[in-house]
Amino acid sequence: MSLKDLPLPQKLKNLSEIAKKIAQAIHQNQKIVVVGDYDVDGVVSCAILYEFFKKLHYKIEIEIPNRFSDGYGLSSTIIARLDCDMIITVDNGINAIEAAKICQERGIELIITDHHTPQEELPEALICNPKLSNDFPEPEICGACVAWYLCAALKDEMKLKVQMVEFLDLLALAIVSDVMPLRGINRVLLKKGLEVLRQSQRIALIHLREHFSKYNLDAQLISYYIAPLLNCAGRMEHALLSYRFLVTDKFSESKQYLKKLLDLNAKRKSLQNTIYEEAKEMFLAQKNSQELPFVLVFKESWHEGIIGIIAARLSEDFLKPSIVLTLKDGILKGSMRSVSVDCMQVLEANKEYLVAFGGHIGAAGLSLRLENLESFRMQLMKFQYQQGIPMQETRFKEVLGRLPLDLVRKDLFRMIQDFEPFGQDNLLPRFYTEAQIVDVRYFGAGHSNVKLQENGARHNGLAFFKDLRENVGQKIGCIYSLQWDKYNQDVVLNLEHYEFL
């Protein structure tokens, strides 16, 4: 599949009609507001629409909710402060039942573009969602991809001369950040998007390339570094910071935004490590924790913007669906993550205990009243989860095989790179070996640069969020992937999981 094989915008249900409505609003000089979300997908969706409309010389307003004061998605709070004729949601809105009613009452034309899982009741609005589009071949595309398709439909409707490939540098950030399956449409768009990203003249992307110049600009760099950096604004303060960074055309402004993002991200990492250790200790202290089918932890002081990351790390550590909750204004707010269970299916089955919920198969948000917590916990115990796979077996099922250190060479790395981009459903190849730690250099925010030795062969490895200085001389069995060290011009091992032998 290549770009020319991508399905046409008309394949997305209602998109042609939506394009006609927006074109009509433009011709009538109506005021249009785009309402996004506070994660990378939502921010990029807003940036794509802003950049597209800028090419039309038509001014639109961008509204991104504040996680802490507005909550998720289009809400009555947001609508109350908007003075407009049309609202277009991106990366949200599929569950905005009440918001749609308010828009009707106020005479605001509401257009919803989203990709999250629809529930039984839909808002009274014109909706485009790949999960509601039977003719569209890939239901799992990100919100920014729907926004990109919306721009393509509007281009066709208004017979504009706009190259849609120009926006793929931005779209690449969202595809990786939202962990889309890298098959078909997503794979084609990301592969081309990475090419565009490496040459992009957007000031923000120039600065990101400079800042991360010692790394290869690939899907792993976006996943491990760029996406968390852009996400930290919405987690810690307001996502408008990331949005402004992406769309500004002023060099000095962009530098200032990047510095603020880097400072916020450092705070986020420190806070995240503290909460993670508390949450992990709390779960392990529960009776028979290893036999529980899920992780559920709660502390009212935990930072609302961090708990999604904590849930993800707990899910990866214990290979169980994980829910992390905090308390705000008498309501428990939380995030659910899972590597094997459909989060939305679990929450749908227990919705009687919830105030609200929404999300994807592997990630969802939820809220419930404090008095319902124990009932909710008991119902989670009764849910029919998939038969669990032993942790060790699960760790190894995605390992290609045993690869001794003397076979780790540049030619092998180059061969692996031919299969890029790697991500969901096209996993980066992982290998296993057993080696001795002969030296450790501690660096950064709790990371270790490890020198490993196996049968006389030595190689450098990286262990993130681990201090292994006290383990010199010990032998480990480790699962690792390969990455390129631009500074030393060599291949290094990324130690993803290890056990002492």
From TrEMBL:
InterPro entries: DDH_dom (IPR001667), DHH_sf (IPR038763), DHHA1_dom (IPR003156), RecJ (IPR004610), RecJ_OB (IPR041122), SSDNA_exonuclease_RecJ (IPR051673). Residues 31-175 form the DDH domain. Transmembrane segments: none annotated. Keywords: Exonuclease, Hydrolase, Nuclease. Residues 402-495 form the RecJ OB domain. The keyword Cytoplasm does not apply. Residues 296-377 form the DHHA1 domain. Pfam families: DHH, DHHA1, RecJ_OB. It comes from the Bacteria. One of its GO terms (molecular function) is nucleic acid binding. Gene3D superfamilies: 3.10.310.30, 3.90.1640.30. One of its GO terms (biological process) is DNA recombination. Belongs to the RecJ family. This is Single-stranded-DNA-specific exonuclease RecJ.
